[in-house]
Amino acid sequence: MSGNLHGALWMVLSAVTATVMSVGIKLMGPDIHTMQITFLRCLVGFLIVAPLVGGRYWHVRRRGGSSAGSPFKLSRRWPLHVLRGLLAAVAINCGYYAISQIPLATVTVLFFTAPLFITVLAIPLLGEAVGWRRWCATGIGFLGAVIALDPRPQSFEPVMIFPFVSSLMFAGALVIGKKLSTTEAPSTILFYTTAVTAIATLIPALFVWVMPSADQLLVLLAVSVFATSRTYTDVRAYAAGEASFVAPFSYVRIIFMSLAGYLIFAELPTRAAVIGGLVIIASSLYIAQREAYHRRQISRPAAGPSPD
User: What is the C-alpha to C-alpha distance for residues 88 and 170, in angstroms, rounded to an integer?
Assistant: First the structure.
């Protein structure tokens, strides 16, 4: 099996885990506040990640590796780590609230604006150059988001803003992670992010805390495990295959979410969400293709500059 096919299968599995997670959040929404769900998700994520990161570090040490890469030492770039964790905490909480309030198909479409925000944020934060083609694709993508949002007075609901806030914060966290990756090990970035999100979401959760029943606790645990699994499957997908090939398979999530929304919650996507989603998908795919082309041109300097 080729690397690209491996990556595609991991991405489809990511869509499955995201769907299960979202269904659990929506089931808990009426009884458990999303701030509490967010904290439990972040706490379980930390409890899963910390031993894995620690075990890998001590395995390297036992084989004679250096201790300089320890994720448990205070990083000199800790302010960026904290900022990334705070952005991730806001992104998760806003995303979970949106899932609990908006039909699954619609909220999933709006979440796919994250690549558009990444393109915009990469300019000031990473100093990347974005050509006119990607600018046009980004603009068209945001137009699709406006269509999906359906801002007509009789249709617009303020809660529709939350998926955009979540996508913006998530994009900021990803861009900062890319900036940190120039000097920090992936294990260090992952450890800091899970630790900061768990700490940052604790206090808000205490204000809305209710004691879950045994059944609710099982659902909340499933949400946390599947949320962490989704992060893992995303990483494995892009590690196994080329991003330009793997990325389109992430849109399978819209199909799974739509089916889950219809079968479990009797939700039907609106016409505006379908049209806007198609525009967002088309623009995001084009951006991914241009970025892949740009990377190939950089890796082959003799071929000349990219006409991006």
Answer: 6
